[in-house]
Specification:
By secondary structure, this protein is α+β, with helices and mostly antiparallel strands. It is built from twelve helices and 19 strands.
Length: 594
């Protein structure tokens, strides 16, 4: 019963059957009992008439009187002695009747004065209703009983049942007919609405032969309003989709969207140009993408693990940077062409390496010539110029050393270093602090040193010393730049063990001029410095912004990192150096991602 009409018709039919059953129950039980009560009262009234007739006539006339009275009242009248002997009966010879003392109505009448009973009479062969009363007649106590055939009651009851059944059937037929019309009027507008909705067009209430109810009209109006809102939403979504597709198509990066089943849902035009492939929408990405790294990246994203990797298309000599993220219903990958940047970076590294090597020879010659002139005893004025030449040669040599070191660290090849040295980081920090304390600008600075007795570590001792020395050198220069020769400048060097990360933390903090907020995000980049000038107060030469870049790259070479901590004043840097993996003889440098 899925349809509303069927359910309502079933409900109506059940209701009618219940009414019919209740009516029949009333006819069978209630009406029968009411008729029995009425017949008993009638018999009791006829009993009164019989008593009156017996009082007015002589006992010898009782038989004649009762016969006439029984015919007139249409009942049987019997006079019974207290011992149960039948004295007179209106329909039978009293001498032929058996003793009635054991009759229920007689026993009750003798005991209580009035009794009644319904049973089958053996003398008249009928079901009878009996009413008896124990009363004095002519000074003698007798039981006078009247009886009524139940067949008359059954006739009346049958006639009532027939009339009631006919009335109920007529009412049920009328109810079904009217109910069917009502259901039709109720369901037809709803069916019309369903047809209008299924057509997909605007919903309107079609003309009907019977005016629909207010509820149906409200339903039609609500559906119409909902359809209009849905149409507006769909139009907005379509506009947003078109706008988004245009944006994605105009991006200088390739965008690939796959669903949970691994099939391609969307690909913008730049993606096809990057991967040199036609549109493969609807195909599994595993069979479309030729790069195993890119396939693995997308598979990880579908498992909920976001990531980034470098993709090299060797046939086209293209270098791509791919990033994939997991989204609801699939994953999104963004591919950026890094070929030009890669070539520029390679050119930069080659230029730095070549320039560094080429400049070493003339710088050496310049130094040798200047030292030779100093040894030959030049004038005081000439010696001043020669010392400035040597000083600038040292600066240029240091700069070239830093550039060459960064170039080698970035390339990951031809780096003559040993990462398996047994190093005591605590002792290394003490050496770096002693060297920094000899700096001319460190004369008025206070030192706070908190180092463990020993801190065993495996790595490149010279590179690690360079990291700590660069941080302490910066702390000295920038703290002295704030306080100059005045007291108050402080530098802190601490080392702690991080058991959670299984790493050493080297913290260098100062209360110097600090780092501007605008520079914090790029402080570890090459040629970036915390102050704007290269000369600090005319007392020392400024650097070229390579010190922190070397610290960062050296820490990463050892599997660690360097952090710029939040500080109320000055600057605080933390070098994190994790323990090398168990059983690893040498750390292998991993290429940068992104």
């Amino acid at each position: 019963m899925r349809h509303l009409r069927t359910r309502l018709f079933f409900l109506l039919a059940v209701s009618l059957l219940l009414c019919f059953a209740l009516g029949w129950l009333f006819q069978s039980v209630v009406l029968r009992d009411r008729l029995s009560d009425y017949a008993a009262r009638e018999l009791d009234g006829r009993l009164e008439a019989s008593l009156l007739a017996l009082e007015r006539s002589d006992s010898s006339e009782w038989r004649t009187v009762l016969e006439e009275l029984g015919k007139a009242l249409r009942c049987r009248i019997t006079v019974i002695a207290p011992d149960g002997k039948v004295l007179v009966d209106s329909e039978a010879d009293a001498a032929t009747l058996e003793n009635h003392r054991n009759r229920p109505e007689v026993q009750v009448a003798l005991a209580e004065g009035h009794g009644s009973d319904t049973r089958y009479s053996q003398s008249v062969k009928k079901n009878m209703l009996y009413v008896a009363r124990f009363v004095p007649v002519h000074g003698e106590a007798l039981v006078v009983r009247t009886a009524f055939p139940l067949a008359l009651l059954r006739d009346v009851l049958s006639a009532g049942r027939l009339s009631l059944g006919a009335a109920l059937l007529l009412a049920a037929a009328a109810s079904l007919f009217l109910g069917t019309l009502f259901l039709r009027q109720l369901v037809q507008p709803i069916q019309a609405l369903v047809k209008a909705v299924n057509k997909g067009g605007p919903i309107s209430l079609p003309p009907l032969p019977v005016r629909p109810s207010a509820e149906v009209q409200e339903l039609a109006l609500a559906l119409k309003n909902m359809a209009e809102r849905n149409e507006q939403i769909l139009q907005q979504l379509q506009e947003e989709r078109t706008y988004l597709e245009r944006i994605l198509a105009s991006l200088p990066v390739g965008v690939l969207v796959v669903n949970r089943e691994g099939k391609i849902r969307y690909e913008n035009p730049p993606l096809g140009k990057l991967l040199r492939m036609p549109s493969q929408k609807g195909h599994p990405f595993q069979g479309v993408l030729r790069s195993p790294e890119l396939v693995e990246l997308l598979e990880d994203a579908l498992r909920g693990r976001d990531g980034t990797c470098n993709v090299v298309l060797r046939e086209e000599q293209r270098f791509l940077l791919a990033q994939a993220v997991s989204v609801a219903g699939g994953a999104i990958a963004v591919l950026q062409d890094m070929t030009e940047r890669h070539l520029l970076e390679e050119s930069r590294k080659a230029f730095v390496a070549d320039a560094g090597h080429e400049l070493q020879t003339p710088l050496t010659i310049i130094r040798a010539a200047a030292e030779l002139l100093l040894e030959e005893g030049s004038s005081e004025n000439q010696r001043s110029y020669l010392e400035r030449i040597l000083e600038q040669q040292e600066r240029i040599s240091a700069l070239m050393d830093d550039l060459l070191l960064l170039s080698r660290l970035d390339s990951g090849t031809a780096v003559p270093l040993d990462l398996t040295e047994e190093v005591d980081l605590a002792e290394l920090c003490r050496v770096a602090r002693e060297e920094a304390a000899l700096h001319p600008l460190a004369e008025h600075l206070e030192w706070e040193v908190d180092l463990p007795e020993s801190a065993p570590f495996t790595g490149w001792s010279e590179g690690l010393l360079r990291c700590v020395t660069n941080l302490l050198d910066n702390a000295v220069k920038y703290t002295a730049g704030r306080f100059e020769a005045n007291p108050g400048g402080k530098i802190s060097l601490r080392m702690v063990r991080d058991d959670l990360l299984q790493a050493w933390r080297i913290v260098v903090a100062d209360n110097g001029i600090g780092i501007p907020e605008t520079m914090r995000h790029c402080i570890f980049e090459r040629f970036r410095r915390g102050d704007a000038s290269r000369v600090r107060n005319g007392k020392a030469k400024g650097g070229y912004g390579l010190g922190l870049a070397i610290v960062k790259r050296m820490a990463e070479l050892h599997g660690g990192s360097v952090l710029l901590e939040e500080s109320d004043e000055g600057a605080a840097f933390t070098i994190v150096l994790p323990d090398p993996p168990s059983g690893a003889s040498q750390r292998e440098e991993t290429p940068e991602r992104g």
